[in-house]
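Before relying on records like the one below, remember that each one covers exactly one chain. Contacts with other chains, cofactors or solvent are not represented anywhere in the record.
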Amino acid sequence: MKKLFKSTVLLLSILCMSQHIHAQETKILVLIHSDNGGTYTLAQEVAKGIESTGKVKADIKLVKSSSNSSLKDIPVATVEELTTYNGIAFGSPIYFGNISTAMSEFLSKTVDLWSNHALEGMPATVFMSAGSGAGKELAIQSFWNSLAVHGMILVPSGIMGNESIDKTVPQGNTVLGTTSLASLKNVERPTKSERYLAKIQGQNLSKIALALKGTYQSSLITKGDNQEKNIDEVLKEKKIELPTVPQPAGSYEPYVRTGNLIFINQVALKNGKIVNPGKLGVDINEKQVNEATRATILNVLSVLKDAVGGDLNQVKKCVQLTGIFNTKADYTQHADLMNVASNLLVEIFGDKGKHARATYGASSIPVNSSVEIQAIFEVE
């Protein structure tokens, strides 16, 4: 028994250390909407610039899924995950001197982030793909207005790299951010010079993100308001509805309580059916796994509420989350998938929802669920 206890303590220590190391990673999100791939090409160059120092990782994600063959496999971002990054590079086509409709719709969903000061102090930069080039500065400035309301640190391009571009070809660069003149005929777009400027823009954002890291609170909940509120009121305010407690499919219990600890395991079951069943990258995409992950953590919370007699205010701490995802052997972004569950717990419980965490990939999961979550909570 002593050996088992020591082994358990060692395992938990390793998991906590792994979570701490992951938390130290510097990541920048390259968040885009692209119609025909021009903005995506610029995004790839921005990402190369971000990663050129070897100290920062770049993730390219869409604000809306696309059927374009060059874009259909790019993951779709969630609003909740924005706070997990150390900087964001926004990319969009220019629609009549403004942000694209899809990007504008995504930004309209960030009201909760704004009201919780969640993006204040985070660096951001903007690049865009134009048609004729008319209104490109106006479009970037309109983008900046939205980001400034969030209190983000706006990172312009200035004249960096201008001395090295091909001045015989019309370029879309501005001092505010790189753009591409997508409609000009007989010229590859984005041009070599535009791609070069986009890469420099990424390098500059990477440098500033590294310098600012740790100087601001990048968290969905920054004031700890929810720690003082009734959890039922928080759920109502955020329009989060917990499902019916899933019933066991075998000789086991939905939860086990020992002392002040509650242990729960759940899969993506909703209304008697698995949400988006299958393997990521084969049957389903990352957006669908994110939906399944949210359904799974809501099941965990439903069971937890039952375990505490219907009073979630008895929860003192989420101690540990373990996410297991049904993925191909070469998939490595499990932690990003698990952020959906982690962010939701912090959104509901504030600091009480912050936890140690582990994520794994599996070749299969029972009942063909794309995700399984194991959770440990401390309660009163």
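The chain has nine helices and 14 strands.
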